[in-house]
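dumping these here so i dont lose them again. two proteins, back to back, each one seq then structure tokens. dont judge the mess
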Amino acid sequence: MNSLNLKSKVCAIIPFYNEKDFILKVVDDTLNFVDEIIAINDGSFDGSEKLIAKKNNVSVLTFVSNKGKGSALQFGFDEAVKRGYDIIVTLDGDAQHNPQFIPEFISSLNYFDIVTGNRLSDTSSMPFQRILSNRITSFLLSIKTKQKILDSQCGFRAYKKVVLENVRTFSAGYEAESEILIYSARNGFKIGFVNISTIYGNEKSKMNPIKAIIGFIKVLFI
């Protein structure tokens, strides 16, 4: 396992779709902890991308139409690897992930190849249906990967470059985040977790629960 050093280059990938109420703050807060942000505009039509398009150390890459979170993430991964980043952090554009945890994610990569946020250490503010679905999917993924998966659905993660050089996701939707864990475990990469707080406000989830369930079932059989 390659250790990291103070010269490691860090970027954040932030996929977003119609996040004009949140994206600017997310980007501003994240810039305190990374060298560059690669923001993937997944077909937004609310002008979200205009809020961050001219910011220093921010690259906005735009899909003309909405392709899904998995497609946006893989596009960002390819770009980050191409640009030579050693560490790639992913977080959502709806302000549910607190960028102040990024240093802890990076530090944990000295012991793991992938570090995922774990929101289930404190579920007091998490809707019950999310708790239930997450515990079920995390249990099933633990069996599938033969590693302990504490929070399979959290998009707040950090990856070593070597993982993304060897692992790709082929799913377009939210199930891509489970698919990445399966392929990573299959390739011998070690998965760790950082306990994070959950932030739920007035934002409306863009996840279609039926599509998400079908997608997850599909990746369980890859």
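---- next one ----
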Amino acid sequence: MSDQTRSTTQHQHPGLPRRLAAMVYDAILLLAVIMICFVPVPLLSETFRESIVGRLILQCYIALILFVFFGWFWTHHGQTLGMRAWRLKVTRHDGRSVSWGAAGKRFILATISFAAFGTGYLLCLFHPTNMTFHDLYSGTKLVLVAKKKSRSGNTPQK
């Protein structure tokens, strides 16, 4: 395999630093989305908010917000805003667009990967094509999107 082919192949499978950078971008945006979605929460009674059932409902509400955020972006163009900034895209293993079912599976498995102190993400450091736990078992993968060339063809654009 030539150096050029090897370099191209390696860059098609994004590593952990690029994934983490996209996650930081998305976390900032998600913080704003969650803050907006929680505007009506103070209207709920204090007794409800502090009860076990109330807390469970609010946690499910947050999980739903997160799933809708990621699911919508993954099923529409395959990129969150953070992923777009870092030129990442989610596709199925066969290269097709992600369905809501696959997005749900990926979301649940990524949450488990993250909750387990990031061990599911660390797998990409050892996998030959930088796949994480949720990449492998959700039927989806992250790929690096090529830089767009400018009209003159000289300078790549983001």
